[in-house]
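JOB MANIFEST
job_type = single_chain_structure
chain_count = 1
residues = 151
[input]
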Amino acid sequence: MPRGQALAEFALILPLLVALTGGAMDFARVYQASITLQGATRNAAEYAASKTTTQSQAQTEARRVVCAEAQTVPGFVAGSGGSVPNCTSPVVTVTAFSLSTTAAGASSTYPLATATVRSQLEFRTVIPWPWLPGGAWTLSTTQSYSVIQNR
């Protein structure tokens, strides 16, 4: 066996091993961030539908819930002065909010509230993959929740 053959073989296989390790690491990070963002958005829709009465209140509370639950996700950006409840990333939007007193099972005392919340987060990978423009994915999720309030 010629001297240096093992070193040459290692040099050939090393980029593949680094790419596989980096890919596994980035996949795990993006999967965890996606699950966290989805859960936070679902909880925000539930809280907004259960506890608020206006679109404005729903927007404020949905942002507070998502920001509190997603603060450990890579890509999270706190609001001015480091304010977690007013984070700027993920972007949280209440796309629909309604209260109905005429829906089945609803009344003026017990209205049916429905909230739809959308969250988006720009996720940067550790490895600068050539097929990702700017090395980032945009994670987004939309969740809806309906509940009879005051019960």
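[summary]
The first helix runs from residue 5 to 51.
The CA atoms of residues 3 and 9 lie 12 Å apart.
exit_status = 0
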